[in-house]
Amino acid sequence: MKMKKKFETEVIHGNYDSAEYQDSLVPPIFQSSTFTFANAQQGERRFAGEEAGFIYSRLGNPTVKILEERIANLEGAEKALAFGSGMAAVSAVLFSFVKTGDHIVCSQGVYGCTFGLLQLMREKFDVSHAFSFMTTEEEVRSALTENTACIYIETPINPTMRLVDLEMVSRVAKEKGIPVIVDNTFCTPYLQKPLELGCDIVIHSATKYICGHGDVIAGIVAGNEERLNKISMTTQKDIGGIIAPFDAWLLLRGLKTLHLRMDRHCENAVKLASALMTHPAIDQVYYPGNPKQTDFNIAQKQMKKPGGLISFTIKGSKQDAQELMNKLKLIKIAVSLGDAETLIQHPATMTHAVVPVQKRIEMGIPDNMLRLSVGLEASEDIWEDLEQALQK
Ligand SMILES: Cc1ncc(COP(=O)(O)O)c(C=O)c1O
Question: How far is it, in rounded angstroms, from Cα 68 to Cα 287?
């Protein structure tokens, strides 16, 4: 589905008509848990789905609906659903696609809690999974089994910044009628649109760039109406990980500057990645804008810009990496990403601490790796701080 106007306009005005809301320029917050019916029959019709209208905020809320429609428009999706966290979104989607005995093919590397959820699904519900780098069509095909119910991809992968060719994977998946789910958190629809590349479902931890201000935990799912209706009437309604109206309002506020923030995150990250690449204390820099990265061509093909996250390994040990973090003054030590503040974290002991050591090494997350979420500050100031911390 095409946007009517340019992204930069739709992100501010899309899917909101102030005339429908007492001419309020800014969407109002409907801070109400439930909605009244004119009479018993109207209640019956709404529950039966015969009449449109709100019932109860776990089943839908006007402020949340404005957010959902705006994001669906930005992702080129028929519909979107908002959740109380990125993990509520991930679990609602995965549980909607699988049943006991099914199998999930997953990119070789995912966010630590998504890894934890896959483990839990295997242990409790006998849903198995296999990881694949998905570098070639053959590699994708060989990971599929008769019971594969879906393919789950992060690209760029957290925190290795490896990329998966979404158009290629969705082409292979279509041969077998297997849906492709993409966690688009690192890119946002401003940098990458998985649905346009043939994928079926997009997930976001909206906690990150979509919010952009570090003050909300939230998730988004976007895709076709039939599947999204199913999620909304099953795993969203009955597991209940919904977003609060005030948090939806904060996301609408943050969204208005998404394009400006992403441009600046990327501009800063490009400068910092190139400074890191030539620093003698650095071993490797993992950044989709790094021409030396093997999957650089995938970045060129499917990402508008290389994004605001950089991972790097230092010439040294885990202790050296932790010491570097402790020397930082401006850059904050914190998990999460996509905020105005530059954040650094140590994946092996933080976001990916739940991944067993052997698996973590296979995923490409050594003890001397750090992940930097480049903020909106002056790039010179961020570099000055990093440089002084990199000094022996
Ligand atoms: C790529 C990715 N997906 C999903 C999540 C989970 O999101 P949340 O923390 O909003 O539940 C995160 C969190 O860091 C993430 O980085």
Answer: 31
What is the CB-side half-sphere exposure of residue 370 using CA atoms within 13 A?
32
Residue 293 identity: Q
**Nearest protein Cα to ligand 1, atom 7:** 86
Can you give the pLDDT at residue 4? Answer: 87
| Percent of the chain scoring above 90 in pLDDT | 98
* pLDDT score, position 2: 74
Q: Say yes or no: CB of residue 155 within 6 Å of ligand 1.
A: no
pLDDT > 90? residue 36: yes
User: What's the 111 CA to ligand 1 centre distance in angstroms?
Assistant: 7
E-state strands within the chain: 79-83, 103-107, 128-132, 148-154, 180-183, 201-205, 219-223, 282-286, 309-314, 332-333, 343-345, 369-373
| 185 CB within 6 A, ligand 1 | yes
Q: Is the beta carbon of 339 within 6 A of some atom in ligand 1?
A: no
Which two tokens mark 361? 């090494």
Ligand 1 centroid to Cα of residue 390, in Å, is: 28
C-alpha dist (Å) from residue 91 to 97, 120, 318 = 10, 11, 32
Number of other CB atoms surrounding residue 48 within 10 Å: 8
Residue with structure tokens 């102030």? Answer: 18
Nearest-10 crossing angle of helices 86-97, 112-125: 40
Structure tokens at 392: 């022996």
Does the predicted model carry a pTM greater than 0.70? yes
Is the Cβ–Cβ distance between 242 and 284 less than 8 Å? no
